């Protein structure tokens, strides 16, 4: 009966698939060789998600052009044929998601061999990422052949830059998720709050395929501390985020403003920039829905400029700007403003935390930001409480995002430890200063006492001589 039960279990595809879904990648290679049923149950999990990054293992070895047939390869496209189910082209059809991190030009999979467009790809994530020493020339997303030729069938794209050029050939794309920091806004050429027309953005950079119907704009990491796409560069000038004018190796953030004069030292403030950018989008995009996430929770107060805008005021400005953009695009919209309100919605950061995890839009590097802000650990809460007892509105100095005690509620573990270290160093210096002053006071008192004693002795001698 045991043998019969195991046979029945092994022959039940759904159960086997559920079991192997919990196995690590290394174990899935072994289950492929157990039997035909285990092979079919394991392959979808093994090939579901593909990660392209520096020094990655090339899984495309063996991929061929569709017309590159051999005597052992059937000439039809029926992937259910026995000889077709184990060739590399057939296995690649199981790939549903691709995460493309920064990689060098000689590591690009399409450079190594020809790869057909992935037929069943659902999500492509242009993840960027840091570049270490000796990296070489990066394969930029705008020119990467793997992104522009192999991933073109994706239905959803997660992108971390405002340049949408890499998505221009994605004719099946339906949804775009834009992950953006405030300091990654485009360079501003405008002259004021009213003159949005001076906000110049290249049409080729902000154009989305007409198949895109939904855009999610996720604002996050205003302090630009998490998931840094950093690299080192050697040039001369003061446009680097570390500052200084001497030449040498500099750590760059790959950011519009941080690599120039600092995240919060640009002008004008976001109350002008975000509505102006949305207006530019409205003039080009053909969308049915726009969702803005974490708008109020990702903008530190100093970035609002001299005038104080409430979050609800900023939202109204964004909707109005979108309406203006659509009016400029077409005179056929008779009720543009109400139409904009219906298609544009705002959601909190806490809502996105739940939604992003459910839809696999938050990767490991980004997760720390959302956890620190909306699901802090007990240890982090204790650290914040410890800092809260020490900090005051007068001496707050880290981080520099706000002179408000409420901002401390969103500090990360590193922020808290950094402040405690600064506080301890300040206390140590104060104690050393007090100790030196006490020693100096004692020395001065001793010296005064000795001088008085010498005067008394001299007076006694004079009296004796008289």
Structural notes for this entry:
With about 475 residues, this protein is an alpha/beta fold. The termini are far apart. It is about 40% helix and about 10% strand. The longest helix has about 55 residues, at about 415-465. It contains 15 helices and ten strands. α2 (about 15-20) packs across α4 (about 35-45) and α9 runs parallel beside α10. The strands form two sheets. The chain has an eight-stranded parallel β-sheet with strand order 1-2-3-4-5-6-9-10. It has a two-stranded antiparallel sheet with strand order 7-8. The relative contact order is 0.06. It folds into three domains: about 1-45; about 50-375, no CATH class; about 380-465.
Topology:
Layout: H1 2-10, H2 13-20, H3 25-31, H4 36-46, E1 49-52, H5 88-91, E2 97-101, H6 109-112, E3 123-128, H7 145-150, E4 156-159, E5 175-180, H8 203-206, E6 214-219, E7 231-235, E8 248-252, H9 270-282, E9 289-293, H10 311-329, H11 336-343, E10 344-347, H12 349-358, H13 364-374, H14 378-390, H15 413-465
Parallel strand pairs: 1-2, 2-3, 3-4, 4-5, 5-6, 6-9, 9-10
Antiparallel strand pairs: 7-8
Helix pairs in contact: 2-4, 3-4, 9-10, 10-11, 14-15
Count up the helices.
15
Structural class: alpha/beta
Tally of strands: 10
* Strand order in space, largest sheet: 1-2-3-4-5-6-9-10
Percent helix range: 25-40%
User: What is the end-to-end distance?
Assistant: 130 Å
Mind describing the biggest β-sheet? 8 strands, parallel
Listing every helix as H and every strand as E from the N terminus to the C terminus, the arrangement reads: HHHHEHEHEHEEHEEEHEHHEHHHH
Catalogue the unreliable spans. Answer: 68-83, 191-197, 236-246, 332-338, 396-404
Biased composition (Basic and acidic residues): 424-448
Region (Disordered): 424-466
Biased composition (Acidic residues): 449-466
Protein name: F-box domain-containing protein
